[in-house]
Amino acid sequence: MSNEKKQGECPKITLSTPVRFLKGVGPERSRILAQLELHTLEDLFYFFPRRYENRAPIKSVSEISFKEKECVRGVVSSRGFFRTKTGQSVFRVVVTDGKAHLFATWFHQPYLAKLLLPKSEIILYGKVEKQGRQWHMIHPEYEVVKDASETPRVHSGRIVPVYPLTEDLSQKGLRALLYRTVAEHLGQIKEPLPPAVKKNAALMDASAAFQGIHFPGSFEILKAATRRLVFDEFFLLQLLIQMRRAEVRKEIAGLSHAEGRAQVHRFIQTLGFPLTAGQERAIKDMLADMAKNSPMNRLIQGDVGSGKTVVAAAGLVLTAANGFQGALMAPTEVLAQQHYFNLSQMLEPLGISCGYLAQGFKEDEKERVLKEIESGAVQVVVGTHALIEKRVRFKKLGLAVIDEQHKFGVFQRATLKEKSNTPPHFLMMTATPIPRTLALTLYGDMELSVIAELPQGRKPVKTFWVDERRRGDVYRFLGSQLATGRQGYVICPRVDDKGEFSAKSVERVYGELAGFFKNHRVGILHGRMKAGEKKKVMQDFKGRKIELLVSTVVIEVGVDVPNATVMMIENAENFGLAQLHQLRGRVGRGEEESYCLLFSDSEDEETAERLRAFEAMQSGFDIAEKDMALRGAGDLVGERQHGLPKLRIGDLAKDVDILTAAKHEAAKLVALDPCLADPANCPLHETLAKRFGLTSKEKLTVTA
Ligand code: ADP
Ligand code: MG
Known about the structure:
single chain; alpha/beta; CATH 2.40.50.140; eight-stranded mixed β-sheet; 25 helices; 18% strand; globular; disordered C terminus; binds adenosine-5'-diphosphate; binds magnesium ion
């Protein structure tokens, strides 16, 4: 049976049919298509053009104009081969409409002689240039007219899509494949949207949209098709978020933290500094959330150094006062230890017991801490990923805090909440300032508190992009800072000098600087060191036993050494704006003037724009906006970063109106049918599950 099938019969084509079963593809071509992540028929439909060319008016040779890109039709009146002085093979044809002539030239493409025959009618597309009195096209796209009345054409006489390419694949070949795909299999596209949503948002049909995005009949159709597909993408995302949100809002008896405000106020009195307005508001919002029976789901967004830890501590005090436990998870051992140290100092005097759980603990030590967590003897526990290991069970978890939440995947975040029988209140903190539109999408299921200001007395960090020729001056300046008792960081993009990549390494720079600053203690830190070694180096730096620390970006997150005043960054072109901002945030934490010095001799225009913007800007929010403008939102929404899939067509920076409409429609639908259980919403439910790789309903409701 299966043998027969292999021999002749085509498998029934569906959206999940592998591309190699499509007409004209086969194993060889399917391997090439796989390089573009095109595996199934559906992938082809979602392979959107990079841009379009308007080749709609096909002109005669007499009608074309100089300097324009034109689509021209004519007859080959003569043709020939020759070689240039440098030995290049050249094929040239003269095309005419009987009145005017156009020369078309190709290099290294002798096979064209078999295609563009004398007296054949051809269509060319390219830029028209002038050489003396002759009109030329160099390397135009060509098409042979087989049947003069042939309509519609694929490569000319229309708005033509231009697709992203890979080696071994020609634009024409790919375009022809897409054309066939759309022409033959458009019927496979099912309409996922309920009619009401389509009507309210004035959207065209799904199948018309796929036709229109690949081979639009006009620019109006292209626009409407794009709008429809962007809407779908945002709508599905919003639907997922809103469904999760509906789930989160379920009430849980006994979760309410109604007591303990007095203790929180007493705690704030002990701090020794007044809270900033942003901190106060965040704490107030948090306390109100935690007084409710439904779990809080709040994100604190505040620039580096804005004092988010204090807010978390206030929440931990409240949960302890209500007889619950609190947990704080940080992405690195260095950071977790720092939090443990600070929180113990703040909370132990109030009679709140704190514990620490490290991945590297010996078995008996770990056993002891796990018991204390399970029995409730420890009220606040701090740790890294160790906190979400299977064995960890809380007696009664009231508040789970995640610091630098963008460093954790969505499922790691969810796991911490599942460490107790009932879902706890949930607080996340991030120093990645996210533009409003992005926050709307990514954190649509969360409440948001923004701490917009830094504590008083913080000075902006003086930032300079310095020329390599001034390296001597920079070193002398660095020396003068070290001489007055300040400390500094030097960041390099890589650990050692192995491999092709030419940026400076920590090992090389450490060697140079240890030689240059003979009177100062220079240290080294990178991700390949053992956890114990890294810890020792950080302690020495905090304790001023190390004055200058040469490091990779392992230092990036959350480290707090107020005495450090210089941040020097080698090969700054290797870092994105967000990362540069994080790095700069390591200094400027004390009373003294601080400096950030960037070395880069990159001549890339975009790099220059980025570094100049960074020199001029201090606010994380401004930087995030700029970052988004430079990179496009796509990069910011990578799966690893936020636990959400990459957008295929929507652009969070540009499509705010569509996003808003999608959000609105999703909210309406979820209010009516929170689990999409209505049979009419079945296609939508299926599409949603498929798009986010979820198979069961249960998975759909995992909360971020
Ligand atoms: P981040 O938001 O980057 O996590 P931290 O919570 O580490 O910032 O706070 C940075 C430093 O600022 C800490 O040393 C903290 O004690 C201090 N700090 C926090 N809030 C204030 C405030 N309102 N006034 C003065 N200093 C503060
Ligand atoms: Mg922090």
